[in-house]
Design a protein that fits this description.
The protein has about 550 residues and is an alpha+beta fold. The chain has 3 domains: about 180 residues, Formiminotransferase-cyclodeaminase, Chain B, domain 1 (2-Layer Sandwich); about 150 residues, Formiminotransferase, C-terminal subdomain (Alpha-Beta Plaits), CATH 3.30.70; about 210 residues, Four Helix Bundle (Hemerythrin (Met), subunit A) (Up-down Bundle). It has 17 helices and 13 strands. The strands form 3 sheets. Strands 1, 2, 3, 4, 5, 6 and 7 form a 7-stranded mixed beta sheet that branches. Helix 8 crosses helix 9 and helix 13 packs antiparallel against helix 16. It starts with a strand and ends with a helix.
């Protein structure tokens, strides 16, 4: 598995598009780098760039970006709302896939050493890359900003970790480090008062505010949100104040929790939250969690499509108040996926049928089986949603919401398996096409064929497992769901049965090519049991369906 690091450098230029483009061109010039997002802000005069790649490529791309920024940005002329200390103000590396924090720290140090030596820019390390707890916090390092750093850098305790102990007039200094995934999130207010925005920021941020009691003693009152940093500011471009937050652990304090807490504080202080703004990218799950939260708040079923959950999140958080929010550009998983990952899912029904009917061997029976499973899960979710909204069943909405959510999850997984089955077939074809002239090539080819064949078995076996789950959902809907939709639950059962049997054929046809007979025998036994279970359930369900229909 490829190691991936995300890098999110913040450059102190948010107005001149040509300068930003020259910097990002340097980043994109490195092989193995994918530029995910470029988010300039005029009022902050700052651009947040997000890119990913293998570790060495990220180090090279980050260095080239920092180098170009130092050539183009003159910090002595820089003005902006956001705290800053250099042309490249901060450059965090975030371990994204198959790499540890400790490994990522090594690459951060490699980058920092090169910036300090080759560009003569003072560099401070932060968070996981800074062993000194007194100077690992970004806001503490940046305190005094560009203007104050000419004196600060001369203090012994603020000697840079890399580079000269001289502050560059033109490029300033930079902070490089390793941090966890962070969401930069701003909440919009119906006020122009920075003081009032700061009051809300102090209410919600983890470190809260310092107060003096009636005896003159100082004490800190913590804010309501853990792992959140926040300040208030006025954005002239928008004509309103914002609470600017860094959500450093969205598993502890989510985006929707931050929005709600700001709303509570604003209301208590005579203000109103009008919307919010996402700077950079956000994980898909954070958007799904937000959509789920707001649907539950309305006592509505959460078993809706991924697209609908995201739509609810955008509208509830007001993410489109200041400009269009495009999920394809702002959700990190959407930016990283390849068109080939969803080649079949993205086809219309007619296009999918035409492609299946062509002379190409893929998509074939395996993909069709997965699609039948997805249709079964979709029908199960539909019956659950209709039951959740049925008049007189208001007390049951939460139970059926759970069933609908289960159906949606199964549908999404089975739709992915539609493409995965065709991809597995293509890997077999690619493996058979490998060279076999030498003994070493023969061994490589043989191993590739075995791995591809196992994959071509595991995909339809997963289809069988998930389709059996869809059958159980259909059973629950026949027994508990809206009786007016019992025929739909019956069709769901028929689709699940066909999905299991079809996928089973694909498992069996590839079984002879596997040399690990013990593994294959166990899997075949498990597959046979799944088919037997689904056929038994189908027979029972159809009897129940007919009885309910007969009652009228």
């Amino acid at each position: 598995m490829e190691k991936l690091i995300e890098c999110v450098p913040n450059f102190s230029e948010g107005v001149d598009a040509s300068v930003i483009k020259q910097i990002t061109d340097q980043i994109e010039s490195v092989d193995g780098i994918k530029l995910l997002d470029v988010d300039p802000g005029k009022a902050t005069n700052r651009t947040v760039v997000t890119f990913v790649g293998n570790p060495q490529a990220v180090v090279e791309a980050a260095f080239l970006g920092i180098k170009k920024a130092s050539e183009l940005i003159d910090m002595s002329k820089h003005k902006g709302e956001h705290p800053r200390m250099g042309a490249t103000d901060v450059c965090p590396l975030i371990p994204l896939a198959n790499i540890t924090v400790e490994e990522t720290v090594k690459y951060a140090n490699q980058l920092a050493a090169r910036v300090g030596k080759e560009l003569s820019i003072p560099v401070y390390m932060y968070e996981h890359a800074q062993p000194d707890a007194k100077r690992n916090n970004l806001s503490v390092i940046r305190e005094g900003e560009y203007e104050g750093f000419f004196k600060k850098i001369k203090k012994a305790e603020w000697k840079p970790d890399f580079g000269p102990a001289e502050f560059s007039v033109r490029s300033g200094g930079t902070v490089i480090g390793v941090r966890d995934f962070l969401v930069a999130y701003n909440v919009n207010l119906n006020t122009t008062s920075v003081r009032r925005a700061n009051a809300i920021a102090f209410d919600v941020r983890e470190r809260g505010r310092e107060v003096v009691d009636e005896k003159g003693n100082k004490k800190v009152v913590p804010g309501t949100l853990k792992t959140v940093k926040a300040i208030g500011w006025f954005i002239e471009e928008y004509g309103q104040a914002q609470i600017s937050m860094n959500l450093t652990n969205i598993n502890v304090s989510s985006v929707h929790a931050a929005f709600e807490e700001c709303s509570k504080s604003a209301t208590a202080r005579g203000m109103r939250v009008t919307g919010s703004e996402l700077v950079g990218l956000i994980p898909l799950q954070a958007m799904l969690d937000a959509g789920t939260y707001f649907l539950k708040k309305q006592q509505r079923s959460v078993g809706v499509s991924e697209k609908e959950l995201i739509h609810i999140a955008i509208k509830s958080l007001g993410l489109d108040e200041l400009g269009k929010f495009d999920p394809e550009k702002k959700i990190i998983e959407y930016r990283m996926r390849k068109a080939s990952d969803r080649a079949l899912q993205n086809l219309s029904i007619t296009e999918f049928a035409d492609k299946t009917a062509s002379e190409s061997p893929a998509p074939g029976g395996g993909s069709i089986s997965a699609y039948l499973g997805a249709l079964s899960a979709s029908l199960g979710a539909m019956v659950a949603n209709l039951s959740a909204s049925k008049k007189g069943w208001e007390t049951k909405w939460e139970e059926f919401s759970g069933f609908a959510a289960q159906g949606q999850h199964l549908k999404e997984r089975l739709l992915k398996l539609v493409d995965e089955d065709t991809q597995a077939f293509n890997r077999i074809m690619d493996a058979f096409g490998l060279p076999k002239a030498t003994e070493s090539e023969k061994l490589v080819r043989k191993e590739a064929i075995q791995n591809a064949t196992r994959g071509a078995i595991e995909v339809p076996f997963t289809v069988m497992q998930k389709s059996l789950e869809a059958m159980h959902l259909a059973k629950a809907m026949v027994e508990k769901g809206n009786p007016n939709s019992v025929s739909d639950a019956g069709v769901a059962a028929l689709c699940a049965r066909s999905a299991v049997m079809g996928a089973h054929l694909n498992v069996k046809i590839n079984a002879s090519g596997v040399e690990d007979k013990a593994w294959m025998e166990k899997l075949l036994a498990d597959a046979a049991k799944i088919e037997a279970d689904v056929l038994k359930l189908e027979k029972e369900l159809l009897v129940q369906v007919d009885k309910i229909i007969a009652k009228g």
